[in-house]
Amino acid sequence: MHTVDRVPPQALPALSVVRLTLARRILDVAVVLPLLLMLAPLLMLLALLVAVTSGIPVLFRQRRIGAGGREFTLYKFRSMRTGSTGPGVTGGSDARVTRTGRILRRLSLDELPQLWNVLRGDMTLVGPRPEVPHLARRYPPEHQWVFRHRPGLTGPCQLRSRAYAAQLEGRADPEEHYLTVLVPQRTALDAEFLSRATAWNVVRFVARTALYVLSALWDRGGGS
Predict the structure, then answer these.
(1) Cα(18)–Cα(15) distance, rounded to whole angstroms?
(2) Which tens digit of pLDDT belongs to each residue from 19-31?
């Protein structure tokens, strides 16, 4: 097991970019553009729901690590109270999450604005989870290779988000558990997918994601 370095985190090393194949980029645009058009009424409704129940801002903007270690701004519907502070990872019953936010997270609806990130090219449909910079800089060096790749809206790790969140419950230092236990597990799953990241496997993961989201409607346990 790795230990988390307690010295101030350094900048990520220079990382080469693993570029998407043309087929995957075309698939990203072909899937996301119609989805954004079809989901526009739902997006507006969710924005209104967040505004009425939790106030503004409606969108949560946060810097994340993109391909090659370059930062970009990720968009989500805000699910936490404004001004809340705490660990960079979230457990299933985190007190910072609003009542509306808990529903959005459970159904993964808070992630829908990231469709815009995919269309822009910051992200792709399926890939590693986009990491926050201060945690990325604390990754064990042997796992930082993952930041060479474009992060994904969904992926093998995102489909285990409820289980991962449950593991963080009650931890005195959830970030340490995340970095020493979960990160090695997550990068192993990412490596398995990236070794065969064909357009067909992307489609399979998108279908699995739809089932994962639907399962939250009858799964009474866990958060995301």
Answers:
(1) 9
(2) 999 999 999 999 9
